[in-house]
Design goal:
Protein name: Glycosyltransferase family A protein
Number of strands: 11
Number of domains: 2
CATH architecture of the largest domain: Alpha-Beta Complex
InterPro entries: Glyco_trans_2-like, Nucleotide-diphossugar_trans
Strand content: 15-25%
GO molecular function: hexosyltransferase activity
Length: 310
Amino acid sequence: MEKKVAIIIPAYKSRFLQQTLDSVAAQTDKDFTVYIGDDASPHDLKNIVYLYQDKLDIVYYRFETNLGGQDLPGHWERCIDMSKEPVVWLFSDDDLMPCDGVERIMKALDKCGDKNVMFRFPLAVVDGEDNVIHENPTFVGEKISGYDFLLDKLEGRIYSAACEYVFSRDIYRKAGGFVKFPLAWCSDDATWTKFADCAGGIIALPGKFVCWRNAEGENISNSNCYDSRKIESTGLFLKWIANYYPDKLKEKKLGHALKTYVHTVLHYSVRDKFSLCELWKICCILRRIHLSVALSVAFRMCKVKLNKKR
């Protein structure tokens, strides 16, 4: 009998991989296959995976070339191509599943079917020692639209990570795969928005949290080596939003969300290490969306720069 769920782990790091696979092996429902795509890692991932051959239905493949360094969403896609199951849970090599994760997916599939669906677990953020440093708010309602998800993310009301989303393969194909930006920065947020709209909304899977690991030095999110690329990707994301939701551009709530988001990226994500040229480019993109939004961002961030010099 064919399995329903493909758990896809695009792998590169070894530090937490065994802990991740322990959480997969602890699932109360075993109706899944695990696919691990080794992105030409310098670490010995194969021997870690070997420890689980008798515990999991697991497929391991080592790619000869590293793709994640240039096109991370492209690596996600080639890992998904390893699988055939109708439902995909894109995971990570350092995150943690709740023990009833697959069981909750199966119950939702019994109710909704395995076509044109997208699910979402509650998310907690943990550090390298498994300490919880953030929990997303409790779900409000059973389903959320792509647009409302986007507003929540832009406004900073939620964290968002790949490991909390489960989607049917037909949605993945209908949406044309992942939206691609440099470093995959903002790629997941654009992708989940698009998938959600294709699915008619994201269905909540309330219960125990999926844990996204944000360990110091392990993720792009907390690294300052890529600040210029992050700003570049932010600009591309803003363009994507303008092209994807042209009918929403005059809405006050979107304008407010965009101002909040750009301030968060420039002030917190890159810690005010942006040039005036980079700020100008961002504001030119915002100008196409709404002049008042662009002016507000320009004034606020120039004031931040001036205060830094004092």
